[in-house]
Specification:
By secondary structure, the chain is mainly α. The chain is built from 17 helices and five strands. The strands form two sheets. A three-stranded mixed sheet has the order 2-4-3, sandwiched between helices. A two-stranded parallel sheet has the order 1-5.
């Protein structure tokens, strides 16, 4: 029985490539109205039209027959009005593109990790208490989390680096159809911001996606407070700030906690370790030095790389015996584009897991 065409995949490919309907229609020589009806499933395109769409979007025709739907990341949590609709559409398409590929790869590889906890922030008594609870559940020792990506991936979250067009899109999160938690991170962000963003998205994964929320601004504030407490416990921070907080002390705290000076300063204010007037004074001082938008590069924490996605490809190559061409065919991708997007420099250093289980 022939696999039916999935019009959603045509839309996904178009948005992933950054085309509007009008732009793609003009590129392949059809009307926008016809393309709209194709994407809505009202008309079945001919083989000739499918071939034109395939060439115009630089995807294999097989891509249009993939099963699945697309979803909005984070449900309705993250909204930034200054980010253009076109940029958001393309970013969401990129995330859905990766989600479908990860689902395909996970069909042959089992990830063995304990289930993620489901925390209710209101029941825990606030985001800070929820953050402390999660540190306890995950047995996170006192002090800074040296490798946050490794910790989260070891607990069952796959971190996916993305090349978003705007720095306003820090990260997003969603689940695969089988319940695998994914966090997408803008790989162009500085490392301290990546760490905070990944922790911020973790709150959505373990808290907000399992409970009803009414206001996206409230969930964002909750996520920021949770992330700050998870990365920099207030009890430990309070012991460290024994003298008047200044930029030199903030720089030392950033080196230790691997979190931005701005995030530590805000956390100190919310925790009432410093007064509001001192917070405002330091914010003004950082602004005069240009540190509100870019903190000194010498303070940047060491680079962290997510490993699970790369390992999924390694397992297919080394254990399952797939060639690059076969993996690309599996994902309905061009081989060179697949390599450019997914392969890391250390790919060939892998020693396969003979049980075909990815134990993180």
């Amino acid at each position: 029985m022939k696999t039916p065409l999935n019009p959603t995949m045509i839309t996904l490919a178009r948005e992933f490539r950054g085309f509007s309907q009008q732009q793609l229609a003009e590129k392949v020589g059809i009307t926008q109205g016809f393309l709209s009806r194709v994407e809505k499933g009202f008309v079945e395109p001919t083989e000739e039209i499918l071939n034109k769409l395939s060439n115009g979007l630089n995807v294999k025709q097989k891509f249009f027959y993939r099963k699945g739907d697309t979803f909005t990341p984070n449900l309705y949590y993250r909204k930034k009005s200054r980010t253009s609709r076109g940029v958001l559409i393309r970013a969401e398409a990129e995330m859905n593109f990766h989600r479908l590929n990860i689902q395909e790869l996970l069909d042959s590889v089992e990830i063995t990790t304990p289930p993620l906890p489901c925390l209710d922030i209101s029941e825990e008594g606030g985001p800070e208490n929820a953050a402390r609870k999660l540190r306890q559940l995950w047995k996170v020792p006192n002090g800074p989390i040296k490798n946050l990506f490794q910790l989260l991936e070891g607990k069952g979250i796959i971190i996916v680096p993305c090349l978003f067009e705007s720095p306003d899109i820090d990260g997003r999160s969603m689940y695969t159809d089988d319940g695998q938690a994914l966090i997408f991170i803008n790989r162009l962000l500085p490392m301290d911001r990546q760490r905070f963003t990944v922790c911020h998205e973790t709150v959505h994964v373990v808290c907000h996606m399992h409970s009803s929320v009414s206001d996206s601004n409230d969930t964002e504030r909750e996520a920021n407070r949770f992330a700050a407490e998870f990365l920099v416990p207030e009890k430990e921070l309070r012991k460290q700030i024994v003298t008047k907080l200044n930029l030199s002390v903030l720089a030392d705290l950033k080196r230790y906690w691997r979190v931005s000076m701005a995030a530590i300063l805000y956390h100190a204010k919310l925790s009432r370790i410093i007064l509001d007037r001192r917070y405002k004074s330091l914010i003004i001082e950082m602004g005069k030095l240009g540190m509100r938008t870019k903190e000194p590069s010498e303070l940047n924490p060491p680079l962290e790389k997510p490993k699970v996605l790369t390992t999924l490809f390694r397992l297919h190559k080394k254990d399952l015996g797939y060639s690059d061409e076969e993996i690309a065919e599996l994902l309905s991708m061009d081989k060179e584009e697949m390599i450019n997007i997914y392969y890391e420099d250390d790919l060939l250093d892998y020693e396969g897991n003979k049980k075909l289980k990815l134990v993180i």
